[in-house]
């Protein structure tokens, strides 16, 4: 009498090592997992992990993804998940590469709006960018703030507090606003340098570390801030 074949568990057509690796990858969902962590979790030999990953890629069950925090480390994700913004860098990145062209276009539009208005708030700039529809995604107020902070650090514009007088008459006294950094156009109550330290406005502060890919030692904006004479 022949033995009855036991039904396969999980994804059919996979050997045990592939099941173990696929489960480890799926457990990380949209955050992906580094290949060394796969080895640590599964306790499988290097050659087994390498062979199994190749097989899973061929079967279109997993995919290799770029993690902007660890660009030199291979990360994998189950095919059904979309990489999180923490991995991809969000809408400012394309395939792990900063979309400088898009950012420059947005900066130019911000500058044009400020020249026309003389002084502008974050809300005003945000509404103008949405009206121009230069991006394929729904640009958020936080993303516009990132652009403006970058322009402040590059000395393209200055961040000031409204005095409620002159060009500021339509903006509540003390409200934060922006204008082109040149001559008399820069009049207003300038925000103190310590209040505008780049770390306080940086959207990547949560992943900044002394020895990380993003760190104070490699940050051009932090270096510029250190050179400011107070």
Enumerate how many helices there are, as a single number. Answer: 9
Using only CA atoms, what is the Rg?
25 Å
Q: Describe the biggest sheet?
A: 3 strands, antiparallel
Question: What portion of residues belong to β-strands?
Answer: 5-15%
Q: In whole angstroms, how far apart are the ends?
A: 90 Å
Number of strands: 8
Instruction: Assign an overall shape.
Output: elongated
Low-confidence stretches: 1-8, 184-196
| Average pLDDT taken over every residue | 77
What is the helical fraction, as a range of percent?
A: 25-40%
Give me the secondary-structure topology.
Blueprint: H1 16-27, E1 33-34, H2 35-42, H3 46-58, E2 62-65, E3 75-78, H4 85-88, E4 93-94, E5 97-98, H5 100-117, H6 122-132, H7 141-153, E6 157-161, E7 176-180, E8 189-190, H8 198-201, H9 220-226
Antiparallel strand pairs: 1-3, 2-3, 4-5, 6-7, 6-8
Helix pairs in contact: 1-2, 1-3, 6-7
Description:
Helix 1 (about 15-25) crosses helix 2 (about 35-40), helix 1 crosses helix 3 (about 45-60) and helix 6 (about 120-130) crosses helix 7. This protein has helices at about 15-25, 35-40, 45-60, 85-90, 100-115, 120-130, 140-155, 200, 220-225, and strands spanning about 35, 60-65, 75-80, 95, 95-100, 155-160, 175-180, 190. The protein has about 230 residues and is of the alpha+beta class. It is built from 9 helices and 8 strands. Helix content is about 40%, strand content about 10%. Belongs to the eukaryotic RPC34/RPC39 RNA polymerase subunit family.
